[in-house]
Amino acid sequence: MVFDGILLAILVGFLRKGNLKGFGDLHIKHGWVFPVLLLSQWVIFLLQNKYELLGTVSNYIFIGIYIVGLTLLWVNRKLGLGIWLILIGVLLNFVVMGANGGRMPVSLEAAGVLDPAYGQALQEGYYGKHTPLTEDTKFGFLGDVIPLPEFYPRDQVISIGDIIMNIGIFLFIQMLMVNKLQTRNRWSLLRKGGEEHVS
Questions:
Q1: Environment class of residue 64 by beta-carbon count within 10 Å: exposed (0-12), middle (13-18) or buried (19+)?
Q2: Where does the chain cross the membrane (predicted)?
Q3: Which of 6, 103, 148, 195 has minimal Cβ neighbours within 10 Å of its Cβ?
Q4: Residue pLDDT, tens place only, 13-22
Q5: For residue 125, what are the CA distances in angstroms to 96, 118, 120, 151?
Q6: What is the pTM for the complete model shown?
Q7: Is residue 198, in this structure, part of any structural domain at all?
Q8: Which domain holds residue 168?
Q9: Is the pLDDT of residue 142 over 90?
């Protein structure tokens, strides 16, 4: 859902007459690490069912990825409210995963909106960083228990942390596309006004 949230935020930014120049001015400390973390999760997802050792330790790798991600978000917390919300959302996901062996619990009932093969894959082995939600699950309410409504173009089950994180992504991108543009326009007008006053 993260990619959906990014695309939606950019679309709204353009509808609000924003632009992408703010991304060019953005300075994220150690920002190159974020795509590496995403790529690492994707590689593990592809290979953990093929290699038993990787499947056995993948939960610990996921926890490590989250710890690095949380650290980077904390380091960049001064970039605004959006980053704080992303941090809180990721932290909530980390808490429930950490309490359940490094995997995100998924409600099989909520997952009924998905392809039946997904629920079967969950019960038979590893599926990404997910595991079925059971009576023994800790903090189950923080897991993937919220099915997206039917009008949403893709069938997905998300967590409270995902929602907060996507709100943060939306606000952060609006800040880059619209708020910074408005600030630049105000400074431009002030400079022009000062030049006219001097002349």
A1: middle
A2: 59-75, 81-99, 157-177
A3: 195
A4: 999 999 998 8
A5: 19, 11, 9, 30
A6: 0.85
A7: no
A8: 2-182
A9: yes
Q: What is the DSSP secondary-structure string of 57-113?
A: HHHHHHHHHHHHHHHHHHHTGGG-HHHHHHHHHHHHHHHHHHHTTTSEEE-TTGGGG
Query: What percent of the chain is predicted at pLDDT more than 70?
Result: 89
- Does residue 188 sit within a domain? no
Structure confidence at residue 198 as a pLDDT band (50, 70, 90): very low
Map 104-143 to HEC letters. Answer: EEECCCHHHHCCHHHHHHHHHCCECCEEECCCCCCCHHHC
Residue 191 in tokens: 């400079």
Contact criterion met (CB below 8 Å) for 69 and 28 = no
pLDDT tens-place string over residues 26-61: 889 998 999 999 899 889 888 887 888 888 898 999
> What's the number of domains the chain is made of?
1
Q: Pick the range with the lowest mean pLDDT from 46-60, 100-114, 119-133, 138-152.
A: 119-133
73, amino acid identity:
L
User: How far apart (Å, rounded) are the C-alpha atoms in residues 67 and 98?
Assistant: 10
Residue 190 inside a domain? The answer is: no
* Dihedral in degrees, nearest 10, Cα atoms 43, 105, 55, 30: 40
